[in-house]
Amino acid sequence: MKKITLLLAVCLFTFTASAQKGKWVKLFDGKNTDHWHSWTLNEVKGWTVEDKVLTTEGKSGDLVTNEKYEDFILEFDFMVSPKGNSGVVYKIIEEPGNKKYFNTYASGPEYQIIDDVNYPGGINNRQKTGANYDIIAPNDLTIAKPAGEWNKGVLKIQDNKVEHWLNGKKVVEYTYGSNQWSEDVGNSKFAKWEYANAHDKGHLSLQGHGDKVSFRKVRIKEL
Question: pTM for this structure?
Fold first, then answer.
């Protein structure tokens, strides 16, 4: 009897886990932040929900998913304030107290969000909206809508193939952990960070980088 019960439990768990894949899950439903916590905390601080929009002034840090993800499609709308800077960071390792993981971007790449035109001091193409931040520039610098307007971002990862989409166009493509990726990271400021060590799963983060940024319609489909 115990063996049958155990078998049924295993089968149910397997079915439940597999049933989640291929289905869209709302990470932000316009009502609450149940799928999130603030970096290294057990609560959400500094992010507000109003009129189905998730917003931060940026002074309370990054919002991080409770779950880790490997292969997925993430869709999100975003709007950055004038002169603002933010991003969506992925493959994050979160270990409170471990100095190697001093922030979300210490271990994971970033889908860049920024005011391309008016950011103080100017930025290079690898730092513009849709870029793999400071590694790969978007292949089209004309499709990002200006600060104060909504943009649509898509991040897809499958079998280490990473794609950044912006307003319906694929603007970045690379293979995470490949020789080319390692070379690119080795020539960047991330060379000695945990960022440079490829790994399978990680948390996702909406970045609070000191500036006002808003998100809506955030959903994910595991592949």
Answer: 0.91
